Amino acid sequence: MIIVLSGPGGVGKGTVVKRLLARDDDITLSRSWTTRPQRPGETDDAYHFVDRATFEAHLHSGGFIETNQLADCYYGTPLPKDLGDQDSDLLLEIEVNGGRQVRDVDPEVLLVFIDAPSLSEQRARLRARGDEEEHVELRVEIGAAERIEAETLGYERVINDDLERCVDEIERLINMHRNDGRVG
Ligand code: 5GP
Question: Hey, what CATH topology would domain 2-180 get?
Fold first, then answer.
């Protein structure tokens, strides 16, 4: 099955993903393609970094389940057949617009929206990681719009107030979803 994790900037999605992968051997992380330049200190496997022409060629050959444009950079999730291990569940860390596209292709997808306990906590986390003040407000606004869209799409909302508790709750949702698939 496909699991989509979304949530506003500064909510700790990356850490949640690492904990989930460490706990559950049956989950494989999807590596997105992007035309965004690699950031200093970002690992080579954070994304499949490509130029625009390569991205567009893959897009036109039907190679993505979903794509999104942010600023003037493209992001896309490659089709699962290109991702190797088909026996495990596939985890996508993408924004809500991408979650909608995946759901259109696979109605059985598990959509999870990880949220901060409060807006003031989200702002504090963004500031703590060094975001500039104008970016903090922008991320908070984008997060608010995503929260509304996520609700409309039927995302499960999980609050990241405590990392282990949050990961426990997501694992519980994943296991319930796995069992649903078997019964249904
Ligand atoms: P960043 O540039 O900070 O790595 O990512 C920016 C946003 O794009 C994040 O919200 C991230 O979850 C989202 N993102 C990363 N890869 C993909 C993708 O393949 N598809 C979509 N729709 N969003 C993505």
Answer: Rossmann fold (3.40.50)
